[in-house]
Structure formats: C-alpha cells, structure tokens
Amino acid sequence: MKLVVQVKLLPTPVQASALEATLRACNRAATHASTVAFDRGLRDRNGLQKEVYADLKTAFGLSAQPTVRAVKKVVDAYATLRANLRAGNLGPAASRRYRKALSTPIVFRPEAAQPFDDRCLSWQHDARTVSIWTVDGRMKGIRYTGHPDQLKTLVQYRRGESDLIQRGGKWFLVATCEIPDAEMFEPADWIGVDRGIANLATTSDGTNYQGRRLSRYRRWQARKRAELQKKKTRSARRRLSRRRCKEQRHATHVNHVISKGIVSAAVGVPPARTQLRAWGSTGRGIAVEALDGIRERVRLRRDQRGTLSSWPFHQLGQHLSYKARRAGVPFLGVDPAYTSQRCPRCGHTERANRPTRDRFCCRRCGLAGPADVVAGVNVRDRARSVWVFVTMPVPPSA
C-alpha cells in the first residue's frame, strides 16, 4: 500500500533562494517541453526526450537527471489529461472546457511541484537533513521536521521519488512510502456506514458523527471571505491568502477523526482519544455506500450547490478505505439505492417510509427509528449478502 509522508523543510535564506530558483527553472523547462510535445504530437517519453534534452540542459541550466524528471512530468501530465477526457471529467466533447484542453498545451505554474529521485535528493535521517540538487549546485544540510510517526514511517518505508513543494512561502517534501499490507481477517459481521451532510457518518451501531459544527464553521469562513473580499485592500488580500485552504485542512482533520473511530470500532481497539467513541465488538468489516458520480446524478437549487460541492464524503471514503486496509479490516462498497427508504425488517421500500429527514417509519410493519441509523443497518445487511458472493469458491467448469 502506498502512502505519502509530508515533512517541512527549514532552509536558510540562501538555501530557500536556491530552492525557489530551482523550482522556477524546472517548471519553465517543463512548460517548454510541453509546448514541443503539443506542437509535434509527441506522447512517448523517449521521443520527447530526444527532442528537448539538449535544449533543456543548455537553455534552462538543468543537469541530466532533473532534465529527465522534467520530461517525465510532462508525459505524465498529458497521460492524466487524456484519462480525464476519456472519463468525461472535462465535460462532453462539444463543451468549451473540453475543446480548450485539446487546443492548448499544458502550462506549469512557476511554483508547481517538482519530483526528485534518489540521484537528485538524499536523506540523512539521523541528522534530520536532506541534500538536494539545485541550479546553484548541490545544497547539503537542509534541515527538516515533521510528526514523529510520519518520520518513523519515512525511515522504514520510503520508496521512489519525492516532490518538492512551495506553499505559502514554506517548503515541503512529499515522499512516497510503500507500506506492507496487513493480513486481512475473515469478518464476523459488518459495520454499515451511512454518509450524509447533516450527519457526516452514522454507523449501524448507532454512533453518529454530526456535521453541524463543520457546517457552522464553513458558513463562518464564507462570511469572513466575503468581508475581506469587499475591502479590496492589500492587507485584505494578504489575509485571504493566509486563510486559503484553512477550511479544507479543518474538514480533512474531521474526516481523519471519524475514519479512525470507525476503524477502531471494527478491530475492537480502544481509541486513544475521547473523541473516538465508536469502540464496539471485534472482528468486523466496514461497508459504505458507493456514491461515485453523485454530483452528476442529482439536480440542486442554486443555494444548495455550494453545500454539496464542499461535502467531503469522497475523502471520508478514501480515509476509511486506506485505514481499513492498513489495519487488515475488510472494506466493501455496496449499492446505495433506497438505503434510506427500505425497511430492514420487512423489506418494504417506499418514499413515504421517511416522512422527515431525521425520522424513519415503515408504512407496512411500523418499524421506526433514526433515518440515518436505519440506512446504516441496510448498508450492513447488503454487505453481508455481497460478502457471501465475494468469498464464494469458483465452481469447476463443466
């Protein structure tokens, strides 16, 4: 399993100046290579490297290995663009966004991340320093820091490239770590998880992670942004820049807390913090609704679009997936159709079974309860059925 570890660099002013010049030179070189690839229709790495290798070294001051990394970044960017076009992420073929993506070459921002392999970047874990290639020569002894758990993972499992990132005047290295998968156990039962907006996650055990505080925080951030945007002053723009991504980081932290609590409930490990109150029985798997493509399936009023766009359900599913995999917990995505309208006792499905957002009451057998808990129970029941087919032995061919 691949995870990324981010560490913060602590360069001196001279080192920071060299890093900034390196990042800008690499991205200018990548933009030049992208223009050549677009004009001449080059898509493979070898063909593009033959065309631009000499130019990138002489015109942009790159050495051999950074030149190769810049070419690979361009090829990967065009491969990602083609995948997005095939998947329809840029709209239909007749849309303006689709046509613009096809008619213009990819341009890299001056501060865009730059990958470095082990030939350009080396780690000295004991001294907590890195040595990195720059346009001003090899810079040694650049200090870094990070969370102790992240640093331990970095020492044990780091593999492949590391990306140099500049964000808000600060410098970071993002390293890829290859962590071995834990042995997956056979689940005794399942925890069904229903994701929503008012309640971010509700389990079949009845544990509810409300989204009221997150929604209130988002509204407060929106008001602050509007106030600063109205001022149109230099100090207001600086404050807006400092507040950028703060809301996203807060939502990510909330998702980490929720996913950690649910995985702790599945494996039966007592949580380390009082925030994680989902400790339950042991040896269970985790099942969620497969909500892929929900933004394309629903039509919303204008005042609802911002709420849905900022709903972090996909990230919560990703956190649950990789934390479960790391702990060896089985993880399933099940069909989400009518999970909030189906009665888990008699199977009756009707829209009237959910008279309000928070309440469920079956019109046939009279079963009543919180709507999100009932949906979680339906997700759990579907996971039980799906797991039977997943683990069924393949019948011998006739």
- Backbone CA Rg: 25 Å
Overall structural class, as computed from helix and strand content, comes to: alpha+beta
Order of adjacent strands in the largest pleated sheet = 2-6-7-1-5-4-3
For the terminal residues, how far apart are their CA atoms? 38 Å
Main sheet overview: 7 strands, antiparallel
Uncertain stretches: 270-281
SSE topology string: EHHHHEEEEHEEEEEHHHEHHHEEEH
Number of helices: 12
How many beta-strand runs? 14
Can you give the helix content as a percent range? 40-55%
Shape: globular
Spell out the blueprint of helices and strands.
Blueprint: E1 2-10, H1 13-40, H2 45-60, H3 64-87, H4 96-103, E2 114-116, E3 121-124, E4 129-134, E5 137-145, H5 148-157, E6 158-167, E7 170-178, E8 189-195, E9 199-203, E10 208-210, H6 212-231, H7 234-243, H8 246-267, E11 284-289, H9 294-297, H10 302-309, H11 313-327, E12 331-334, E13 359-361, E14 368-370, H12 371-390
Parallel strand pairs: 8-11, 11-12
Antiparallel strand pairs: 1-5, 1-7, 2-6, 3-4, 4-5, 6-7, 8-9, 9-10, 13-14
Helix pairs in contact: 1-2, 1-3, 2-3, 6-7, 6-8, 8-11
Q: What can you see in these coordinates?
A:
- With 398 residues, the chain is α+β, with helices and mostly antiparallel strands.
- The protein has twelve helices and 14 strands.
- It has helices at 13-40, 45-60, 64-87, 96-103, 148-157, 212-231, 234-243, 246-267, 294-297, 302-309, 313-327, 371-390, and strands spanning 2-10, 114-116, 121-124, 129-134, 137-145, 158-167, 170-178, 189-195, 199-203, 208-210, 284-289, 331-334, 359-361, 368-370.
- Strands 2-6-7-1-5-4-3 form a seven-stranded antiparallel sheet. A five-stranded mixed sheet has the order 10-9-8-11-12.
- β9 and β10 (208-210) form a beta hairpin.
- α1 (13-40) crosses α2 and α1 crosses α3 (64-87).
- The protein starts with a strand and ends in an 8-residue tail after the last helix.
